[in-house]
Amino acid sequence: MSIADDGASLAEAVLGGSVRHTARLIRGLADGRAGAREALERLFPATGRAWTVGVTGVPGAGKSTLCNALIASWRRRGFRVGVLAIDPSSPFTGGAILGDRVRMQHHAGDEGVFVHSLATRGHLGGLSRATAAAAHVLDAAGYDRVLIETVGVGQDEVDVVRTADTTVVVLVPGLGDEVQSIKAGIMEIADVFCVNKADRPDASLLVRQLRQLAQLGGGRGAAPAVVRSVATVGEGVEELVDRVESLAAAQRGTAAHGVRRAERLRHEVVVEVAGQLRERAEALLGDASLDAVLRRERSPMSLAAELVEGLLGPL
Ligand SMILES: Nc1nc2c(ncn2[C@@H]2O[C@H](COP(=O)(O)OP(=O)(O)O)[C@@H](O)[C@H]2O)c(=O)[nH]1
Ligand SMILES: [Mg+2]
User: Fold this and answer.
1) Residue 95 CB–ligand 1 contact under 6 Å
2) Model pTM?
3) What is the set of domains in the chain, with CATH numbers?
């Protein structure tokens, strides 16, 4: 165990701005290491300052390109930016995640930008747990803006963006059923719709459709804003950042935002309970107890009930 693997020194290094230790802590938390958990405990009182922004949308919508431009704009405004890139199309660290790194590499060498990729698989207890923990670390490490890029497909990804203070849903014209798919679930979490690839035909049509949809109201109260961008050339990015910043300025410290953060932390506790119980149950579940299920002498349900009773005591 190296010196910075114990919780106290790891926490101190992260608070002191060490990029290497920040990355190590995030990995340690994803792997469920005890030292990492202790470090997070020590860091947690320093959290709550960052404004987190979730960026979601289908693969290829231009999220990484847009995030790159957002980072540049925030840097010009004097903010330090932490980025968590999540992409389920990448089976292990490589593939699309590497692509994200390449698209964000303009910022390599800038100590005010931290980029970390989280694979969707291989996290004990799920992506939303690992992401929430990593976001706390970046918050404590003093990043003013924490950007979370995720593909808006499964429930896990919706859960991830739900944890953000502001959620940007990126859409592109010409996919046909875009607006339909929004109605199905993303609508309720969107604060800003960004029509990217506005250099393509039908961008104005999509903007109009989204404005109509937005009138019906988002799940977070106010009607979501609709902006358009061409991320590859940075067009529309300042407006997008202006919009996010005005939401942040208007909401920070309000009772409504306090309620939202409280709900988020409550949700995080519940997700943690489920995750930690699952870890304990998996540790308890030896091959011997599974044998009876494999022989079909008892059901998975009765074994599960026995394990839960073993963990929590009888009902
Ligand atoms: N024409 C056009 N292409 C774009 C725009 N934004 C991104 N792209 C391209 O779309 C592709 C996918 O972009 P990427 O940022 O990786 O999308 P992601 O999967 O949502 O992160 C890349 O080839 C980008 O260069 C845009 O505004 N207009
Ligand atoms: Mg991407």
Assistant:
1) no
2) 0.87
3) 1-46 (no CATH), 47-252 (3.40.50.300), 265-312 (no CATH)
